[in-house]
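Let us practice reading a record.
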Amino acid sequence: MKRLMVVFISIVLLLVTYQAFAKDYVITKKAGDYTVQIIIGKNPPVTGINRMEIAISDEKGSAVTDAKVSIDYGMPAMPGMGPMNYKNDASLKGNQYLASLNFSMSGPWFINIKITRTGKTQLVKLNVDVK
């Protein structure tokens, strides 16, 4: 019995340690001539505030720092619940655009990142499953 308890506690500690050092959610997508790398600070994203970093590079691989980046995210309508839609602007810090996403509940969420530069707009779409 004592040995079983030690094994159980060891497993719990291992899981807690794994969660503490889990890697970020990272995805790279193309949007026209841009390569967009999106990093969400938790993998999987969780209910509550999640940090998002967006790095945009042009066809030459140079960082794009003169764009307006806005994020539209939400959850589609479900039985007994209307759709949820939120908007957030990302701010430039260094070569990355930073934003915070506040997921109000677990489930499937869409994220649309709109990149506007020199009068042209590109859109990056992705879906995440919030835990």
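A brief commentary: The chain is about 15% helix and 55% strand.
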